[in-house]
């Protein structure tokens, strides 16, 4: 089978084909991020495959330098984009252990968490510099929430403020506001129209490195992928003029090999992101509050009016914005709720398991001579 006979390849890797100059070995294992640690996990007799796109019934997998659609067989853990899988006889045998995983919580009460992407090195938290149509600055709460997920993933978060052309000189002030919500995280303005800042984004990537873009619909993620790919690889949306809100264009998560090396994964805009696990990432998002709280008189100070509370004092002096403390309270409450829900689910599962074991014991007891 030749490369060009694979019509799929044109859909998923138009960069490689339309550029023409790139060697087909661009899909070799090293480019895709394969290394000795993954190799050590590969079951004997199987070959590695990289998940480029997932559907409900199967996945597009890069195997042996080309793409292949593989339907899931029963009993495998469902892969996500970025996963390494072991492939044998044209089937996915198993998903190799994930080095990092970006997981979001279920949106509905009973829905399960969802892994958006795995084995990424960098998570670009994408937020528009200006919420056009609704006239406003970046949504700091949304950035904090996505940063919590990003820190939990094990990958390095970076905040990108897209569409910097729309805010002109105000960009400096906007960046510094966002930095206040993202201690210890790099914050970069970027404009995919003029290309300003695109090189800085590219500098986080290189051969074998993978980044994922997360952010609301219409933030300009796909446009940025195009700018990085120096080509039109993603279909971008036209924002409706009436309210400035975008329609969802990115339907499937997709993985792209960039011409200058590195992989980038685009995710569909997320309307509502809930925290996934117990909110361990929150500590990293709110290091400023954690630091100030070390000076509270009581070790277990809840910062709700106790005497000698350093956090409240920092609010009064203006060192800490009230918004930041409110956000910290809100996300911590949510994390507690998620944790209790997870606990309840674990308890349920344990009860169910015991029921099965008891039934089995009774049955085998009856069968005993
Ligand atoms: N002015 C300006 N507009 C931009 C820029 N980047 C993207 N846009 C516009 O913003 C709109 C949304 O861009 P997309 O790239 O489709 O947004 P997205 O984040 O991929 O959206 P989803 O696929 O729904 O998640 C499009 O009309 C783009 O042309 C930019 O740097 N400046
Ligand atoms: Zn306190």
From TrEMBL:
Principal localization?
A: cytoplasm
| Cellular localization per UniProt | Cytoplasm
GO MF annotations, alphabetized: GTP binding; GTPase activity; metal ion binding; rRNA binding
Tagged with keyword Coiled coil: no
The residues that hold Zn(2+) are 296, 301, 303, 309
User: What cellular-component terms does GO give this entry?
Assistant: cytoplasm
Residues holding GTP: 162-165, 215-223
Tell me where in this chain the CP-type G domain is found. Answer: 109-273
The Gene Ontology biological process terms listed for this entry are:
ribosomal small subunit biogenesis
Instruction: List, separated by semicolons, the cofactors it needs.
Output: Zn(2+)
Zinc: is it a keyword of this entry?
A: yes
UniProt lists the family membership as follows: Belongs to the TRAFAC class YlqF/YawG GTPase family. RsgA subfamily.
Protein's name according to its UniProt entry: Small ribosomal subunit biogenesis GTPase RsgA
Supply the source organism for this entry. Answer: Kibdelosporangium aridum
Q: Gene for this protein? A: rsgA
């Amino acid at each position: 089978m030749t490369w060009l006979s694979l019509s799929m390849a044109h859909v998923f890797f138009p960069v490689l084909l339309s550029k023409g100059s790139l060697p087909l070995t661009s899909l070799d294992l090293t480019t895709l991020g394969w290394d000795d640690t993954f190799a050590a996990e590969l079951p004997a007799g199987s070959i590695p495959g990289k998940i480029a796109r997932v559907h409900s019934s199967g996945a597009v997998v890069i195997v042996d330098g080309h793409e292949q659609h593989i339907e899931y067989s029963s009993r495998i853990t469902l892969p996500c984009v970025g996963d390494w899988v072991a492939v044998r006889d044209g089937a996915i045998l198993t998903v190799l252990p994930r080095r990092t995983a970006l997981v979001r919580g279920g949106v509905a009460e009973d829905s399960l968490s969802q892994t958006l992407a795995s084995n990424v090195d960098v998570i670009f938290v994408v937020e528009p510099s200006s919420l056009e149509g609704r006239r406003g600055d970046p949504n700091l709460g949304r950035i904090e929430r996505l940063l919590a997920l990003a820190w939990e993933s094990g990958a390095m978060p970076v905040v990108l403020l897209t569409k910097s052309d729309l805010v002109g000189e105000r960009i400096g002030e906007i960046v510094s506001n966002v930095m206040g919500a993202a201690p210890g995280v790099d914050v970069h303005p970027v404009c995919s129209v003029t290309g300003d800042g695109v090189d800085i984004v590219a500098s986080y990537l290189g051969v074998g490195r993978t980044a994922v873009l997360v952010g609301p619909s219409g933030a300009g993620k796909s446009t940025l992928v195009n700018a990085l790919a120096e080509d039109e690889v993603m279909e971008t949306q036209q924002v409706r003029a009436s309210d400035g809100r975008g329609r969802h264009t990115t339907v499937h998560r997709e993985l792209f090999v960039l011409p200058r090396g590195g992989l980038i994964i685009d995710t569909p805009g997320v309307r509502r992101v809930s925290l996934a696990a117990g909110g361990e990432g929150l500590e990293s998002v709110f290091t400023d509050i954690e630091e100030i709280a070390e000076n509270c008189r009581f070790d277990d100070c809840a910062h709700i009016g106790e005497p000698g509370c350093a956090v409240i004092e920092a609010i009064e002096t203006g060192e800490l914005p009230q918004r930041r403390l409110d956000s910290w309270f809100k996300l911590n409450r949510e994390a507690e709720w998620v944790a209790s829900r997870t606990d309840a689910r674990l308890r349920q599962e344990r009860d169910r398991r015991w029921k099965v074991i008891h039934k089995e014991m009774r049955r085998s007891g009856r069968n005993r001579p």
